[in-house]
Amino acid sequence: MQFDITPYDGQPFEGAKLALYLGARLAVILRDATPGLIFADHWDLPGGGREGGETPLVCALRECREELGLIVPEGNIVWGAKFYEGVAAKWFYVAQLPQQVMHDVAFGDEGQGWTLMEEDRFLHHPKAVPAFQERLSIWKQTQSGNI
Could you tell me the pTM of the whole model? Predict the structure, then answer.
């Protein structure tokens, strides 16, 4: 697996997400079904908004710890890039941990629950957050040399 992590450029950003593979499957979170919540009741990835002056990677790792109770070492990040949603910069990372880490998950208080999902299922699921399907697809393309 290649390591391709865009360095943080120090520019403002709103948040960061982490596509976390536990073995061959993704750790995904079912968002709350609250009316008015963007992508309510959709499959999401760990991550969220920036706090204070944290870097994008620190943001993604903190959010993963809060949402799934997992500490992901920085050395387990294999890919990262900055994306834009309108004028807002958001970061997206990919990390790999062993499958047995699933037994260490301590689900937080955001969302309805979590599961491990096959990558292709997430990429084609009608109720997965589209931006993260797209970003994960971009990472996959970089791995196969198609980008």
Answer: 0.94
CATH number, domain 4-143, options 3.30.360.10, 3.90.79.10, 3.40.50.300, 3.40.50.970: 3.90.79.10
Extents of the domains making up the chain = 4-143
Q: Across the 147 residues of the chain, what is the mean pLDDT of every consecutive 10-residue run?
A: 79 97 98 94 97 97 97 96 94 97 94 97 98 97 74
CA dihedral 29, 33, 37, 40 (to 10 degrees): 50
Pick from 52, 53, 48, 55: which is nearest to 18 by CA?
48
